[in-house]
Input
Amino acid sequence: MAVDRTGIIFEARAGLNESKRILAGFTNQRQRRGSLDDALTGVDVLIGVSGPDLVSAKQIGLMNRDAIVFALSNPTPEILPDVARAGGAAVVATGRSDFANQVNNALVFPGIFKGALEREVRSITPKMMIAAAEALAGLVQNPTSDNVIPSIFDERVVETVASSIK
Output
């Protein structure tokens, strides 16, 4: 489910714009309501794309054991990796290069564009994006909590992603 400043987004919530109503339709089919705490209770994964310092270690503790936290707000993530781990997260990624597991669009876009140009692809489809993500994930042979995504400096990244575009 998705959460904004007001809380969990659900289709019947007053004042939703059309984009949030559509988002709620596929992320919250059970029409759950409540706060960020309610949304985090008993879940496995948090993907934050909102703003700095919005999640606490206590809130990570509401999640299931060995939770996965992608705190991608940049330059300051929703929660710093050490704080997320203190709350019980097993894997933490951010958009910053000074922490392990940097999630950055530069991991895929050079390769997607190269592959599209080489194969004369006219549009990038969701299927291509999934193939690129799977190819990228395949570069990490022995994942650990600090190594679930290859480094942006891994020389194999561009060619691997490019070859996945068909």
In short: The first strand starts at residue 3 and ends at 4. Residues 126-137 form the longest helix (12 residues). The radius of gyration is 18 Å. The chain has a mean pLDDT of 95.
